[in-house]
Amino acid sequence: MIAIDLSDQSYTGEEEFEDAVSVAASFVQQSFREENPVAVATNVDIHRGLSATRSMNELSRVERLDRTHVTELFRLVRDREPTASIVVLVTGSRPRTDRLRRAATLLGIDTRVILIRVDPNHPLAVDTVSNVTAIQLPSLDDLPRAVRRSNA
Questions:
Q1: Domain total for the chain?
Q2: What's this model's pTM, rounded to 2 decimal places?
């Protein structure tokens, strides 16, 4: 499951949001390359069983939303995909990592959660506690290194 936070309050600007969408798209492409089934979630819907092209088209159409919060995305994933084994959630720099970790508990201990905060103002950081890995990603160029560090 690849989840992209559309909450306007999660991002400092359009560029940060566009980087987050690019990160989500990178995970979608990798899933298809590895022939893993993937669903794409936003704060309002989950798209399952799409082809690689349709998944990328869905991501190209996403826009930030005023009246939503990243916690709603966690709840949507929990309620509509309760058996998801891995959830990659991509958001902006505004949600605090401790609050994202707390929200990740909604998914349960059996779900591996990878939280990616796109934050161009801070260095790359990767921290794993229990089933949740938090990645602070300064730029899209740092994504391969961040993923390698999260798998170590």
A1: 1
A2: 0.94
